[in-house]
Amino acid sequence: MTHPVSLVGAGPGDPELLTVRALRRIESADVVLADDLVDPRVLALVRGRLLRVGKRGGCISTDQQFIHALMIREAKAGHRVVRLKGGDPFVFGRGGEEADALREAGLEVEVVSGLTSGIAGPAAVGIPVTDRRASPGVILVTGHPGEGRTEPDWAALARTGLTLVVYMGVARAAAITAQLLAAGLRPDLPAAVVSGAHTAAQRHAMTTLAGLPACIATEGLKSPALLVIGEVAAQAAAAGQWPEVMAG
Ligand code: SAH
User: Fold this and answer.
1) Is residue 9 within 8 Å of residue 79, measured between CB atoms?
2) What is the whole-number distance in angstroms between the Cα of residue 226 and the centre of ligand 1?
3) What is the pLDDT along the chain (248 residues), one digit of tens a residue?
């Protein structure tokens, strides 16, 4: 008998932000395949076999095929398989590709949603991404679409007037900023960077759109981090205030 494979969101860091279902799946799994981004405190909850299958620096396409094959093999052997991903498995997590591969192999798939870092990360430093006084909506967008994939139309995004939350944007912040400025966004539009949200290494900085690249460099803010661009970013708490309380 095979069990459904669970694609589980581990949330941004702190295990208290796991859903009850995520915790149950993690604890009852025979084997857990975990990404790099999953917090060590969440990995510590694994009772079965833990396989770290992060692909930092590796050949992405080959590794992805390898992960699919591994999940399929383990599930077909009758094991309870959990595929554990940072944040939400269906937000920039390749969860869709994995679900397809599993279904094509004749397996059932269950998706256990998690808190995505693009919402919970800004919140950790006091930024409500859709505060209606400042923005009627939010766009979650990648700053790094991947080899051969289309770059987001930054000028079109700029025209929406919505809050932009950019995942995987730290390395490309200068290019993104330049395109948004060229599209007419104000240089003094508030912007914030939130790094390692809800982890032991959480840090953030508040700046302006024009100041974003320099801020990342001078503050030494590293991936994983979110760029938050829009009026709501001005609500980021001053360093040393609310964030520590929120992070518990
Ligand atoms: N599925 C994840 C996103 C994976 S893409 C989610 O829903 O959150 C990886 C990117 O997510 C990172 O480059 C970074 O932009 C963001 N990210 C993930 N965890 C983060 C965290 N704890 N703090 C800040 N950004 C994070």
Assistant:
1) no
2) 7
3) 899 999 999 999 999 999 999 999 999 999 999 999 999 999 999 999 999 998 664 455 558 999 999 999 999 999 999 999 999 999 998 999 999 999 999 999 999 999 999 999 999 999 999 999 999 999 999 999 888 888 999 999 999 999 999 999 999 999 999 999 999 999 999 999 999 999 999 999 999 999 999 999 999 999 999 999 999 999 998 755 665 555 55
Which residue among 167, 193, 195 is best mutated to probe the pocket of ligand 1, counting the most ligand atoms within 8 A of its Cβ? 167
Whether residue 88 is found in the same domain as residue 160: no
How far, in Å, CA of 39 to CA of 51, rounded?
14
**135 beta partners:** none
Domain end call among 48, 78, 112: 112
Residues forming beta bridges with residue 80, ordered by sequence position:
none
Query: Is 55 one of the catalytic residues?
Result: yes
Atom 17 (ligand 1) nearest CA? 224
Best of 42, 64, 226 for a ligand 1 pocket test (most atoms within 8 Å of beta carbon) = 226
Catalytic-role residue among 39, 88, 168, 206:
168
Of the candidates 106, 95, 104, 84, the one whose C-alpha atom is nearest the C-alpha of residue 2 is 106
Indicate which residue's Cα is closest to atom 13 of ligand 1. Answer: 168
Structural domain containing residue 33: 5-112
